[in-house]
Amino acid sequence: MKDYKTRVSFGSESFMIQAGAEKCSECACDLDQLHVAGCAGEECPQCAKALIGCCCECLSPYDGEKVIQGIYRQFASLESALQAAGEERCQSAVNSSYLQHAAMRYIFDNVPDTAKTEIARAFHLRFPGLVPRMQDDEGRGYYTAEQLSEALDIPLNEVNERIDAMMSASNGIAVAQGKKMRKIH
Ligand SMILES: [Zn+2]
Ligand SMILES: [Zn+2]
Question: Model confidence at 135, in pLDDT bands (50, 70, 90)?
Answer without folding.
Answer: low
